[in-house]
Amino acid sequence: MSESGRTAREDGQQDPREDFVSFGEQGAQLTYGSYLQLPTLLGAQRCESGGGDGPPAHDELLFITIHQVYELWFQQLLHEVGAARDAMAAGVPGGRLWWAQHLLQRVHVIERTLVQQVDVLETMTPQDFLEFRQRLAPASGFQSVQFRELEFVSGAKDAGYVERFRGLTPDEQARLARRLEEPTLWDAFLAALSSAGLDVGTDEQAAASLRTVAHDRDTYAALWALAEALLQHDELAASWRARHVVMVERMIGAKSGTGGSSGSTYLRSRLPLQYYPLLWELRSNL
Length: 286
What we know:
This protein has 13 helices and no strands. The chain is mainly alpha-helical.
């Protein structure tokens, strides 16, 4: 190892793969804070309460932090499900079904984290929330574009959302329009089934193919594992929706949402949503 921290090859020449590496603080190329852009990240929590009326409500920082963390996780989930979809769409042979399953397992862990984060938010009492809730209007979690993107790419496309929410920026409209046009996780899974020689032309044919996969897991091990991974994704999304609505009812009861929605009534109407109904029906037909 040379004084600069670089690795020399046996012939005395510098390894070109190492010529940018300078470990230790003497390198000074990056710091922890600059790499993570911490000044920007930690400066993005701006409370709306307080000002001339006194200090901000104590729990508003918690409220902002939790929701910003959600958006970071949504971004990561979109990154993972997009890659998993593309890996499945490549089909078999030649596809990377193992990679798709690996990424979906990571999605499951993140989704469990999303559910657990509600526990942190529930350390805020209804009285504490009411100190700053009126400052939020008309902002609402209903407006989370990344959450809608995640639903769309998972298989629950809803073009009506783009029409109902008129506060979208041109970039957000373009993102949602792209998600409405591009293949879903389910489309990619059907492509993987088809590439294995299974019929998926209609729902009835796809259901029959799923029964074939379920009854011959030795032959279709990778496809069965993916089917289970997709169902787990669906189940965890449902768990988050259920946990979320109970938290909302605990915080505001039957009040309307800050964005003008019916609040918990709207959220409860979303509970029956299933991304992959054929995978749920399969249980009844085994």
